Amino acid sequence: MDFSFEQGPIRPPSEARSLLIRVTRNCPWNKCAFCHTYRGQKFELRPVEDVKADIQEARDIADRMREISWRLGQGGAVRRPVIDHIYGTDAFHNDSFRQVAAWLYYGGESVFLQDADSVIIKTEDLVDIVAFIKEKFPAVKEITSYCRSHTARRKSIEELSMLREAGLTRIHIGMESGCDPVLKFVKKGSTAADHIEGGKKIVESGISLSEYVIPGLGGEQWSRQNALDTARVINEINPDYVRIRSLRVIRGTTLHAMMKNGEFRPLDDEDVVREIRLFIRNLDGIETQIVSDHVLNLLEELNGRLPEDKDKLLGIIDRFFALSEDDRIIYRIGRRRGVYTRLDDLSRTKTYDALKALLEKYRRENPGSPGGDIYKIIDSYI
Ligand code: SF4
């Protein structure tokens, strides 16, 4: 027994405390212009027996950890002394061991199935895998996976219901946009109609649905249409969650090359927030949790439930735009530096004064510049 099992590269931010079980490798589509996560990597289905062997390995690690806990007088629970022992002992210098330790420390109740679209495998195989997780870890309450709309659309409601009955509780879909010209431009490989059909099937099966949207993905050209069309598609689906992840154009992606050659003109931070405002304003008739849980979002505090929190969400955005231009720049610098998470942070005088001093220094040394290019300020002075 080598106490290790395979791990893929990513998981959604909301799955930070989940055990990661790799069901497939990489992405079956792998063409989205803004994405580089699996570039150059071939998509592969892992044999079900290999995935189950990994689950068994995780279970063996958990059993070993409980033995350690008893030895340390912790009654089988993975508390701080057990974590300290594991992280401080060379013999446990192993990513899988540490992952299971951290997972159990945080309750051991959720599992995320990697990689980008594991629902694509045969339904009976996924049912088998999910049931095996429940058998080996009866305390697990949530089992979740990424899935492309294209894949969800091809599953029947009966198949999705079988997955729910086996224990699959939530599907995360990277919708990105509900605007067909944008989806085509970024080579998403799914249309608005695919998103609607796939999303509605998941909702109907009773599996919780989380849709990721990327404000700014249509750049200057499609900003308004991106907001309106994406709201329309979300309204049709009525997912449990909408997760906002503002666009960042990553070096090495096709979108980055298109930005360099002028084919794609990105929005600045403030225009992205304007787009988000238009999007939220047009969400209607749904019961959905809006979540802004990504570091790329300027306003991370945009969290609330529709319909009741709509005015509150729009009010947060309006409060940002009611700030003076300097305060908006200062907030953006603070946010991008990771020292601000909400607008109230502007009242922390020491941090505010330090950021304001930076902005003034930049303006002194760059006469004529308003200072709106916050990345130049960050790169020059911080
Ligand atoms: S489907 Fe997802 S993982 Fe695959 S290329 Fe597109 S964004 Fe990346």
Output the radius of gyration.
23 Å
Query: Shape, please?
Result: globular
Order of helices and strands: EEEHHHEHEHHEHHEHEHHEEHHHH
Q: Roughly how much helix do the residues carry, as a percent range? A: 40-55%
| Total helical elements | 15
- CATH fold-level assignment of the largest domain: pyruvate-formate lyase- activating enzyme
Task: Quickly give the CATH architecture of the largest domain.
Answer: Alpha-Beta Horseshoe
Number of domain units? 2
Distance between the termini: 48 Å
CATH superfamily of the largest domain: tm_1862 like domain
Find the count of extended strands (DSSP E, 2+ residues).
10
Q: What is the makeup of the main sheet?
A: 8 strands, mixed
CATH class of the largest domain: Alpha Beta
Report the sheet-strand fraction. 5-15%
Bound molecules: iron/sulfur cluster
Mean pLDDT: 94
- The helix-and-strand class reads alpha/beta
Which runs of at least 5 residues are low in confidence (pLDDT < 50)? none
Strand order across the largest sheet: 1-4-5-6-7-8-9-10
